[in-house]
Design a protein that fits this description.
With 107 residues, the chain is mainly alpha-helical. The chain is built from 5 helices and 2 strands, in the order ββααααα. It has helices at 20-29, 32-42, 49-62, 66-79, 89-100, and strands spanning 5-6, 17-18.
Length: 107
């Protein structure tokens, strides 16, 4: 959702996250290149609401205590669904045979 980069610890506690990537993404979203690309691919122009949300979220996190911000980020990371479905070897074998059969019996 957001692409915030924790920076190295500095003496200034307000510099713990960089919202530059979010701002750059929002800036690019309004560019003619991106808008025409979206129109070509999807048939509609991008309203950039996701980019605004990401920037707002990043700026909101910058106002939080560092421990609270890290806790929020960790909670979000754990809530994201994993892209892979984990299976035991037996489940994987039965699923493979269900999808493809036994490829060695084709001959």
């Amino acid at each position: 959702m957001t692409e915030m980069n924790p920076e190295k610890e500095t003496s200034d506690p307000r510099r713990r996250f960089s919202c530059t990537a979010c701002f750059d993404a929002l800036w690019f979203c309004y560019s003619p290149v991106h808008q025409m690309q979206q129109y070509y691919r999807l048939g509609v122009l991008d309203n950039c609401s996701g980019k605004w949300s990401a920037l707002y979220d990043c700026l909101t996190l910058k106002t939080k205590q560092s421990s609270e911000a890290l806790e929020i980020l960790e909670t979000r990371e754990k809530a994201k669904p994993h892209i892979w479905t984990f299976r035991t070897p037996e489940e994987a074998s039965s699923h493979w045979k269900e999808l493809f059969g036994d490829i060695y019996d084709m001959e």
